[in-house]
Amino acid sequence: MNNYEYSVAERLMRYVQIDTQSDPASPTQPSTEKQKDLSRLLVTELKAIGIEDVELDEYGYVYATIPATVEKTVPVICFCAHVDTAPDCSGTGVKPTLHRAWDGSDIIFPDDSSVVLSKDQHPYLKERIGDDIITASGTTLLGADDKAGVAVIMDAAQYLMQHPEVPHGVIRILFTPDEEIGRGVNAVDMKKLAADFGYTLDGGERGHLEGETFSADGVTVTFHGISAHPGYAKDKLVNAVKIAGAFLDALPKNNWSPETTEGTTGFVHPVRIEGGAEQTSVQFIIRDFDTAKLVPYETRLKQIASDTIQHFPGARFDFEVKEQYRNMKEILDQHPHVMEFAAAAFRRAGLDPESRPVRGGTDGSRLSFMGLPCPNIFTGEMGIHSRQEYCSVQDMQKAVEVCVHLAQVVAE
Ligand SMILES: [Zn+2]
């Protein structure tokens, strides 16, 4: 990609100024209409680089095709990124700032000087001294998660459209809404997508290639007490709020939780509690890399609930388990070439691929189980979901290079 003028930095800075925050409380698909503001711009820009087959559907998905440059049949790959930003932090009025050839000193944000980005708190920054770093201005997140991924795919598409001499098969592009609220692939039309395997561009550090995520269940434990007017409740009232309190207190304290685990150890994590004296429910997320370990967690959790209500005569509880997503490794292991192609592309771009299990899920976890094996590739997005979010331009450019190599590797 000698002499190529990358467009990825300008793209990121343009895209982050469009507010695309998703909303977990909204029942609609997409959860917020404003996500389509960016999607519509992407449609226009895809057409401007010469891609004819572009569509934005009513659910907020953008589908596009980079036509093949080789005659022979090669697998159809998909590059995927999400347009929404996390509800945890404001995404309104993002003012991107480019710190050219950053010298390693603390970045103090202009719109709120209490927000500081320092390499002491963000160790990866030490490796990025000298890079061009993009940040927001102190009052919002940046939105590099995942507009860096969007920008990388757009730039790779531009390069490939400008260089028909690069041999590759059909490449499908997919931009999704609502990833941050766990609904990113709910309405993807897999038939329409018609790809053999894919790659999400939604990872962090340069060189990271992620093919392993948590397996995840959600559990709701609902305690039913016996309600009575508190003025006349003697020997009648069984308070569900207190049952829930006793139940939470009975959970293991030195293990089992996100705050006491790391690496490849899973956890059981209460995330929400609601209710009153008559009925109180506690929601949990259950996580482990080994799907088979989820049931033992759930069995023990149920036992703790059952032991708890013994102290509250007349009380009962419901225990509901919902599957959320599964470790994509189970699928990727059946299609080892998907990771191998990516690793080969990393090496051609001069990178040593580093595969680490992700203590979370990606759109790719669910896509993998929907028939599209789909590991995750770095983009340079870091400090995500916070006002200190940042992204190295050179990392994004490296990711563009990886995508272009990947297209060729698959065609060889
Ligand atoms: Zn993301």
Radius of gyration: 24 Å
Overall helicity? 25-40%
Distinct helical segment count: 10
Q: State the strand order across the main sheet.
A: 1-2-8-3-9-15-10
How many strand units?
Answer: 17
The mean pLDDT is 96
What's the shape?
globular
Low-confidence stretches: none
Query: What ligand species are in this complex?
Result: zinc ion
Structural class category: alpha+beta
Proportion of β residues? Answer: 15-25%
The biggest beta sheet is recorded as: 7 strands, mixed
Tell me the series of helices and strands, N- to C-terminal: HHEEEEEEEHEHEEEHEEHEHHHEEEH
Distance between the termini: 18 Å
Commentary on this structure:
The protein contains 10 helices and 17 strands. The chain starts with 7 loop residues before the first helix and ends with a helix. It has 412 residues and is an alpha+beta fold. Zinc ion binds at residues 82, 145-146, 179, 202.
